[in-house]
Amino acid sequence: MKISISFLFLILLAAPPLTVVAAEPEVIYWNSDAGKSLRARITPEADYWQLIPWFTNQINQSYCGVASAVTVLNAMPIKKPVDPIYAPYAYFTQSNFFTPEVVKVISPQTVSNQGMTRDEMVQTLTQLGVKATTVAGDEVDESALRKMVQKAMGDDGQFVLVNFLRRSLGQPGGGHWSVLAAYDTQSDRVLILDVSKYMYEPEWVTIRTLRKAIDTLDAESNRARGLVFVSQEKK
Fold it and tell me: Which of 3, 4, 11, 38 measures 20 to 30 Å from 133, CA to CA?
């Protein structure tokens, strides 16, 4: 028995040391080493390539929803209004977003005070001539969310706005809107183009983390946050 124990002890001494592999963070930022590897894998059909020329920064700390909507609207082949600052060129801005029809749904002052709910986002986008549907974060599991994101990110005619809780991503702050731009199958992560460009780079988050972030309560609507899918109205 003593020989066996001694022999086992010698084997353990000769064995290579165990290597502890650190778990990947739930959120990976664009310019990190891991972020650079992920961005190199963005597929040609990803929404990223359509969105990035129009990706804009919110003009104040309450207009995240407006900036997200404007980014998507400018990427779409739809009729656009003319803002006097860019006349005669048609281009959605965070000012001309508030058409008379949109103001009937929500005013700039209300957005400045409390942001936009999912339902308000859908209604405003509908007034601007596009099709918008919403999915609540408490109505989808990880599997369903993954399928939705995969399909939307590979469909040239559809874009996705995400309403999530920043704290679920380990970031300070409350509810926030931004735009989804790509899905990476290998890592099971989705790319968020954060319209608070003065705060955060684009970020890759796992589907698990994204689901947790949208399955949070929006105090204004007393409903869960979630996704808004935007596409061109079929004629």
Answer: 38
Enter the tokens of residue 101: 């029809």
What are 165-176's pLDDT values in tens digits?
999 999 999 999
Give the E-state strand segments of the chain in sequence order. 27-29, 130-136, 158-165, 175-184, 189-193, 203-206, 217-218, 223-224, 226-232
Written as one letter, the residue type at 201 is E
What's the CATH fold of domain 24-232? Cathepsin B; Chain A (3.90.70)
Show Cβ contacts of residue 165 under 8 Å, excluding neighbours closer than 6 positions.
174, 175, 176, 213, 214, 216, 225
| Whole-angstrom distance, CA of residue 107 vs CA of residue 37 | 42
Enumerate residues 6+ apart whose C-beta is below 8 A from 175. Answer: 115, 163, 164, 165, 166, 216, 218, 225
pLDDT in tens, 55-81: 999 999 999 999 999 999 999 999 999
CA distance 33 to 38: 9
In the chain, domain spans: 24-232
pTM score, two decimals? 0.88
What pLDDT, on a 0 to 100 scale, did the predictor assign at position 160?
98
CA distances from 96 to 73, 124, 163 (A): 12, 12, 22
pLDDT at 4: 53
